[in-house]
Q: What sequence folds into this?
């Protein structure tokens, strides 16, 4: 059973209509049937009274055949029958309507039906020509002096007309109820869809927030889910605040630790004391550890937060300006090949960190030019590929493997903490991207990262 | 060459001042953003070393203010905040270079030298003028390959003139760029130092432009 609101609403409605509609049908059909039967018995009773009235003997107990003035009692096997039978006589002479064509009616008294207060018996019997008959029988006694004779008066009418009417009614009713049920189901289906549409819409908007296309849950939502919207927006905001706060704390920690560390290193460097060398060594280790763990902390503060989207080109331009300024006396040529519409699905600071480290390395080693190329991945439209290459000395296969590992710096004589490339690798993996180093066509190092894009 | 160090950590400030002084610069120091901004705004520094996390006024806004007021001296930003976004915003604010803490003093000195060289339009760390040669990296001065000994003020004077070769430098300018802010300045002492310097290097390199100042040049004024 699917766990869905629409399904629940739909099923509960379906169960309800499956219960209610058959009961309604049952009630209506039995009501109709009893109406028909009451009318039928009324007819029987009227005919019976009339039959008794028209055969009342003038004198004595002998009856003469009545004329009920109803043509259907004369037509053979018409389904309208009457019959008078003397009781307590060994060879009774039965008087009956011509329609019976000498067939004899089975009587309720013969079937053992008990009479009611008016001595009337009613029963259903099989009649001639396979007719289903309803028979009403009444015993009447006549006396003249000491002579007494009882008679059984019976009227029988063919029920098939009435049954047909009931059958027709029932089929029409069921047909109508089925159509009604179908209509109601359809209505409920649309009602549920329409009613739950805002929820579906929220799903879309939340995924937009997650992918960074929106910053909060906007729009006018139905009253019932308004609190949800407010709480969600508050949650998103507090999430952003927490990340901001974590970052600020990390930054403050960096500032708080690094300045004293600078002092220690500088102090030790200007000292000739025997422990000075040890202090410098240990302080340098501390600095590497701080850098490493600060970066881990920054990364950790970010993972799992609601994402954002960063256009790639402005980041590269900003970094290029800064790096060209820092390295202006090297006379390097920077070639940037980046379509303006490429967007990175993630934080601007992270992209800056990755591209900044790669470009910084390239600027450090390049002889004459640095090339930055950005393109959407050919195999996957959800990925972008960014590569930075230089025409410097490059690295050998083993050096490339070693340099990505934490804290390894290929050339200790050049400034830099040696963490640059491992930070790039960490960040790229955090974004489920990849990082690789290879030999550039220009001869130097080519670093390529793939990152999620939108 | 006169430098300004703006750094709120007293120990680091002291270390920077002493290392830079040792390297032959006149160094002023400030400990907060307001004081630093004022000094940079009023005194003619050849370069500034600016910490970004400063009390009273942060480094970025100090830098932006200088640049808005057309103060063009090279600025080396010094900060513990070493994210690229911080670097980019520092460079965007008008910094010329960036050193992340903790740093090695040699690296900082090298960057300062590069900044000064660059702002003087020189390409190499060795500056030449005829037979005279100044290695800004080691602070060595040679004449025809023979090292000569200079006092710290003589060195400052020579270095300033070497960085501004071929240009007439007034006595007032020399006073402003050779002495620290609170030094008792007397432009007459400049004459004394120029005189001493002329005795140690080929005397014809420093020309006296009467009423204007001095000019270090390899070419004769008539040529």
A:
């Amino acid at each position: 059973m699917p766990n869905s609101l629409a399904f629940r609403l739909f099923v509960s409605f379906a169960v309800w209509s499956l219960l209610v509609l058959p009961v309604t049908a049952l009630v209506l059909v039995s009501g109709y049937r009893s109406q028909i039967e009451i009318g039928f018995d009324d007819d029987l009773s009227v005919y019976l009274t009339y039959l008794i009235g028209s055969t009342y003997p003038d004198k004595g107990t002998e009856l003469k055949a009545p004329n009920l003035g109803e043509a259907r009692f004369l037509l053979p096997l018409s389904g309208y029958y009457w019959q008078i039978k003397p009781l307590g006589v060994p060879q009774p002479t039965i008087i009956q309507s011509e329609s019976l064509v000498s067939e004899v009616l089975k009587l309720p008294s013969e079937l053992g039906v008990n009479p009611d207060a008016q001595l009337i018996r009613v029963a259903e019997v099989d009649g001639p020509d396979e007719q289903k008959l309803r028979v009403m029988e009444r015993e009447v006694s006549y006396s003249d002096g000491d002579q007494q004779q009882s008679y059984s008066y019976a009227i029988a009418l063919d029920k098939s007309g009435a049954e047909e009417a009931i059958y027709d009614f029932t089929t029409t009713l069921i047909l109508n109820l089925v159509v009604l049920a179908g209509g109601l189901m359809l209505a409920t289906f649309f009602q549920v869809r329409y009613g739950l549409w805002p929820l579906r819409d929220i799903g879309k908007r939340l995924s937009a927030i997650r992918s960074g296309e929106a910053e909060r849950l906007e729009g006018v939502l139905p009253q019932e889910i308004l609190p949800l919207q407010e709480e969600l927006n508050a949650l998103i905001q507090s999430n952003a605040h927490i990340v901001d706060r974590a970052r600020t704390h990390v930054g403050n920690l960096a500032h708080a630790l690094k300045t004293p560390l600078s002092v220690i290193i500088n102090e030790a460097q200007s000292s000739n004391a025997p422990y000075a060398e040890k202090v410098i060594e240990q302080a340098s280790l501390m600095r590497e550890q701080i850098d490493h763990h600060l970066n881990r902390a920054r990364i950790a503060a970010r993972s799992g937060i609601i994402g954002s989207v960063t256009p790639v080109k402005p980041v590269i331009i900003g970094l290029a300006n800064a790096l060209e300024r820092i390295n202006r006396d090297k006379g390097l040529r920077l070639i940037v090949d980046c379509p303006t519409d490429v967007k990175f699905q993630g934080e601007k600071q992270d992209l800056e960190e990755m591209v900044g480290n790669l470009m910084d390395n390239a600027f450090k080693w390049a002889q004459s030019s640095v090339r930055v190329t950005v393109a959407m991945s050919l195999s996957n439209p959800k990925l972008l590929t960014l590569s930075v290459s230089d025409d410097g000395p490059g690295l050998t296969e083993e050096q490339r493997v070693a340099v990505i590992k934490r804290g390894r710096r290929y050339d200790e004589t050049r400034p830099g903490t040696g963490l640059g490339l491992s930070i790039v690798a960490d960040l790229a993996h955090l974004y489920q991207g990849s990082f690789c180093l290879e030999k550039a066509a220009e001869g130097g190092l080519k670093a390529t990262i793939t990152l999620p894009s939108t | 060459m006169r430098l300004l160090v703006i750094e709120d950590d007293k120990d680091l400030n002291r270390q920077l001042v002493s290392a830079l002084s040792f390297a032959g610069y006149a160094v002023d120091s400030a400990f907060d953003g307001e004081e630093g901004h004022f000094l940079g705004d009023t005194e003619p520094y050849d370069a500034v070393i600016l910490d970004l996390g400063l009390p009273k006024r942060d480094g970025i806004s100090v830098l932006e203010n200088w640049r808005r007021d057309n103060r063009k001296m090279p600025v080396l930003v010094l900060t513990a905040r070493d994210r690229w976004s911080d670097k980019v915003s520092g460079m965007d604010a008008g910094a010329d270079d960036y050193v992340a803490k903790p740093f090695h003093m040699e690296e900082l000195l090298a960057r300062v030298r590069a900044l000064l060289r660059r702002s003087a339009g020189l390409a190499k760390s060795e500056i030449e003028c005829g037979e005279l040669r100044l290695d800004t990296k080691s602070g060595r001065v040679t004449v025809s390959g023979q090292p000569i000994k200079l006092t710290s003020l003589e060195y400052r004077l020579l270095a300033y003139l070497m960085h501004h070769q071929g240009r007439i430098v007034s006595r007032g300018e020399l006073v402003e760029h050779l002495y620290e802010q609170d030094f008792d300045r007397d432009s007459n002492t400049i004459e004394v130092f120029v005189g001493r310097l002329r005795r140690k290097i080929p005397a014809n390199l420093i020309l006296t432009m009467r009423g204007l100042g001095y000019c270090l040049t390899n070419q004769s004024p008539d040529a």
